[in-house]
Write a structure and sequence with these properties.
Layout (H helix, E strand, L loop, with lengths): L1 H32 L14 E10 L2 E5 L4 E5 L10 E11 L2 E11 L3
Parallel strand pairs: 3-5
Antiparallel strand pairs: 1-2, 1-4, 2-3, 4-5
Length: 110
């Protein structure tokens, strides 16, 4: 009878130990599989994304979108002339002309 009374607590402790080990292993696996936290591109929340085709015009280089044509400033765009791109930047006005101050450009289709 004493042996039976001693076995029950030992079995409970062993079962509890297995449950804790299983929980710790599952938590570690979930932590390693969790998605990465997105990184902010920059502190300037006024940046927008524009999609269109880069073209040469008499005044320089422009992005032609379905809504408007914007002169581009802030870089050399010769390498993407004729290509469809996504441009991250903000619209700035110089007199009556709206330009996109480009922060980043990326090909829309690779």
């Amino acid at each position: 009878m004493k042996i039976t009374k001693m076995i029950l607590p030992v079995l409970l402790i062993m079962g509890l130990g297995c449950a804790i080990n299983s929980f710790a292993t599952t938590s570690a696996k979930q932590a390693s599989l969790s998605p990465a936290t997105p990184v902010e591109l920059g502190a300037d929340v006024n940046n927008l994304v524009f999609t269109g085709t880069v073209k040469r015009i008499p005044d320089g280089t422009a992005l032609v979108t379905s809504n408007a044509t914007y002169l581009l400033s802030g870089g050399n765009f010769e390498g993407i002339v004729g290509r469809e791109v996504n441009i991250i930047g903000k619209v700035v006005k110089e007199g009556s002309i709206e330009k996109i101050q480009v922060a980043r450009a990326q090909l829309a289709h690779e």
